[in-house]
Amino acid sequence: MNAIHRLALSVSLALPLLAHAGEVEVLHWWTSGGEKRAADTLQKLVEQKGHTWKDFAVAGGGGEAAMTVLKTRAVSGNPPSAAQIKGPDIREWGELGLLANLDDTAKAERWDEMLPEQVRKIMQYDGSYVAVPVNVHRVNWLWINPEVFEKAGATPPKTLDEFFAAADKLKAAGFIPVAHGGQPWQDGTVFEGFVLSILGPDDYHKAFVELDNDTLTGDKMVQAFTALKKLRDYIDADAAGREWNRATGMVIDGKAGMQIMGDWARGEFQIAGLEPGVDYECLPGPSDTPYLTTDGDIFLFPKQSDPEVEKAQLAMASMMVNPRVQVLFNLAKGSLPVRGDVEIDLADSCMLRGLELLEDPDTVITSTNRMLTEDTSGQLNDLIADLSFNPSVTIEEAQERFARILETAN
Question: Taking the model in full, what pTM does it have?
Answer without folding.
Answer: 0.86
